[in-house]
Amino acid sequence: MKVIKITPRGYCHGVVNALQLVAKVIATEDIPKPIYLLGEIVHNQNITDVLTKRGIITLEGNSRSEMLEQVESGTVIITAHGIDPHLITLAQDKGLNVVDATCIDVYKTHDVIKSKISEGYDVLYIGKKQHPEPEGAIGINPQRIHLVSSIDDIQNLTIDNDKLCITNQTTMSVWDTVKIMNQAKKIFPNLETINEICNSTSMRQEAVSEMAKLCDLIVVVGDPNSNNTNRLVQISEEIAATPAIRVNNLSELDPQFLFNYETIGVTSGASTPTIITSEIISFIEQLDPENSDTWSTVSKLDLDRIIPRAKHT
After folding, report:
1. What is the Cα–Cα distance from 126 to 231, expressed in whole angstroms?
2. Which H/E stretch holds residue 168?
3. H or E element: which one contains 5?
4. Which residues carry out catalysis?
5. CB neighbours of 74 closer than 8 A, spacing ≥ 6?
6. 311 — pLDDT class (breaks 50, 70, 90)
7. 312 pLDDT band (50/70/90 cuts)?
8. Phi and psi at residue 245, to the nearest 5°
């Protein structure tokens, strides 16, 4: 069985920055406690589990606004996906300490949206419904920003404004985004297009679209809630016509299933810990259909290595 290690894979710079910031918060003794996350810092349950062990409370709810209502004191951390800027003000007005781990690429998209709205534009925003990144972007101005997730959404829009632009969530499929933008151009000929897919996302997608052609199967390592992870599966299947599976960790692999393929490509989402992907690569490389001793999918990882340990100061 041949394994092709597709690069780039593993943490993007936005995830690295967010995790380093959280580690610093944990290590700083005079940070007001308790410490809350308004949703998962990044979409990976392994990371969330480790942070829980270190005393971080990850809040759940239908929206960031609903989560914030649960907090009366302490520190709130804004996740890498960004947030409605009005909620930061609300948190500060409640007397909460706010730590912002928003990815710089998400902030860049927010700045683009604010600039276009100030110039009198309405903004079409391509994003996944009920995902925190679009929630934060739409919150900038819900009356002037219109969420679209498909070509059908574009066709159903009625906007009384000749000044229109279209942009997108940073982790969307490159190909889906172009398709939706092209269709929007047909309906709104004066539409200005501003593609905001981040480099980390586009590079991973382009690598999979090419390398998957050399493989019989693609294994994408990542969380089911990670949009950029799910897009890699989609791209392998739709662009390269190569079957793909998504697994969160070693325990989700089925050795018997892998025996059906000769060449397996492995990649991962941008919020997937490298040690988990490396363990899966090593497992597939040593897998022997004639030796059941090589079939065990019980992980031996020390997941605390995912995030730097907090140091007392």
Report:
1. 14
2. strand 164-168
3. strand 2-5
4. 133
5. 32, 33, 34, 35, 36, 96, 97
6. very low
7. very low
8. -130, 155
pLDDT classification of 46: cutoffs 50, 70, 90: very high
Distance CA 142, CA 122 (A): 10
CA dist., res. 231 & res. 301, Å (int):
27
Please provide the distance, in angstroms rounded to a whole number, between the alpha carbons at the two ends of the chain: 49
Amino acid in the structure at residue 134: P
Spatial separation of the C-alpha atoms in residues 15 and 25, rounded to whole Å: 15
* H or E segment and range at residue 187: helix 174-187
pLDDT (average), residues 237-264: 97
pTM of the model: 0.92
Q: What span, in angstroms and rounded, lies between the C-alpha atoms of 181 and 75?
A: 39
Angle among Cα 43, 14, 38 to the nearest 5 degrees reads: 45
The pair of structure tokens assigned to 28 is 């700083």
